[in-house]
Amino acid sequence: xxxxxxxxxxxxxxxxxxxxxxxxxxxxxxxxxxxxxxxxxxxxxxxxxxxxxxxxxxxxxxxxxxxxxxxxxxxxxxxxxxxxxxxxxxxxxxxxxxxxxxxxxxxxxxxxxxxxxxxxxxxxxxxxxxxxxxxxxxxxxxxxxxxxxxxxxxxxxxxxxxxxxxxxxxxxxxxxxxxxxxxxxxxxxxxxxxxxxxxxxxxxxxxxxxxxxxxxxxxxxxxxxxxxxxxxxxxxxxxxxxxxxxxxxxxxxxxxxxxxxxxxxxxxxxxxxxxxxxxxxxxxxxxxxxxxxxxxxxxxxxxxxxxxxxxxxxxxxxxxxxxxxxxxxxxxxxxxxxxxxxxxxxxxxxxxxxxxxxxxxxxxxxxxxxxxxxxxxxxxxxxxxxxxxxxxxxxxxxxxxxxxxxxxxxxxxxxxxxxxxxxxx
Length: 425
What we know:
Elements: H1 2-28, E1 42-48, E2 50-66, E3 69-72, E4 78-83, E5 92-93, E6 98-102, H2 105-141, H3 154-179, E7 182-184, E8 189-194, E9 201-202, E10 209-213, E11 216-223, H4 225-231, E12 247-254, E13 257-268, E14 279-286, E15 304-321, E16 325-326, E17 330-335, E18 340-345, E19 348-351, E20 355-358, E21 367-369, E22 382-387, E23 393-395
Parallel strand pairs: 1-22
Antiparallel strand pairs: 1-21, 2-11, 2-15, 3-10, 4-6, 4-9, 5-8, 6-7, 8-10, 11-14, 12-13, 12-15, 13-14, 15-20, 16-17, 17-18, 17-21, 19-20, 22-23
Helix pairs in contact: 2-3
């Protein structure tokens, strides 16, 4: 027993001394100081939200078509004797110009025969009138007062008058057919295609070629119901002198250069397309080959053009930087004083390359965050770097000191880190 105590007692004394020493050192050790600064915030770029009057635009595309285009065809049969040198694919024609002339010999003979028939009918009518006058005088000399119409030769006279009218009608028909041996241009325009040549026999309705007028061209622009409302147009719109259509700027690349032409909306189509649920807005350009051309370059039929249609005007619209709009209707607002992020839901009116125009949800002067942020949430710690229109940047320090510096200062967008060097004022 004495031997056990002799071994255990030193061990127990060592344990007591070890634990007591550890407790004494822990009590005498200095306490760690509490950090007075908030955790470092994510540095983000932001741009101010502005307010201005805007004019909405709708950008669509469409193909140019002539307002008037016809298939030229003869009204009579015959062999082609002459073609105008302008009646060729791409040729310019004038109103009233001879395009095609048919052989007229047969129709000239028909006119001669018709004139002969008229002369014969006139001679017969003159004879019947003379005989009717003789018959009347004979009856009067005989003292017959109530003679029959046949005795007075009235039926024969009426028949001769009708025969003369019929002969004159045949002459008019023959002269009309003769005049139709020449096909004239019904309007000034251009020839899209020619389908016949000299010596070819054609019959009524045969396609001689296609021609279109160059006074006006039009473009059917398919828009949605929302875009139609943005233009401020009713579903059934037709331009009048008191209610003109909105202006349209057409553009296309022609000959390697960007060209522009200025037209206007004249009407909407009669109904919506049942398959696409779109409605066509018809825009016109006057004199596309003359005053309406861009430095001599016409807006020719068949050209595919972009069209910017001027829409409604909105007063005091709130403009959010385009890159500040998240998804369809969210904007991240940076609070530079508190160094926090706020997520807002906005009512978007319209968006374009310049920005997003909203009706509510944010206020002018607030800063919209334009840097990409992952897993953003309300109250998130940030450090706002305001980007001014001239490209310079203002760093906003949160109240109570810096929100954070060092490697995490631009963690929100690594590509923007080099952009602030030498730009932060």
